[in-house]
Amino acid sequence: MTPVSCGPDEPRGTGDIVAAGARGQTTIADRVVAKIAAQAAHEALGRLPPEAARPQATVVVRPQAPDRAGPAGMPVDAARVRVHLELDYPSDIGSRCARVRRHVVERVGALVGMEVPEVAVQVERLHLAAAHAAQGRTR
Questions:
Q1: How far is CA 19 from CA 9, 14, 54, 66, 113, in A?
Q2: Helices (DSSP H) in 77-136: which residue ranges?
Q3: Kind plus residue range of the DSSP H or E element containing 45
Q4: What are 61's strand-pairing partners?
Q5: What is residue 116's predicted lDDT score, i.e. its pLDDT?
Q6: What is the rounded CA–CA span in Å between residue 105 and residue 27?
Q7: Confidence (pLDDT) at 77
């Protein structure tokens, strides 16, 4: 067996290179991806009503088929994300949910390197804006 050199003064031979598949793989826990997705949703929403809870996310990570490989030849995992939100009302709920979907896909892809084929946004509660609450009934 040939020893692998670690010192800066020792030359590395061609036999010292370990193939990518033999070096191992980094696994990222589902809860870490969920925290990243929740933070991304919070970033996309910007300012929320003071009584609104922070966005929550649940994630299911599944490995992709072996034929779907990433840049290093390793299969890319896919994360299916469900985000729970509380929003202010009145607002354009559809565009805010679309912004959350886009931002979650971008941030999870950039930070974790996972594909996000599905982001389900569930609006748990709407908070009436203070200006409309003072006027009485909202239509």
A1: 23, 11, 43, 18, 21
A2: 93-112, 130-135
A3: helix 30-45
A4: 79
A5: 92
A6: 19
A7: 81
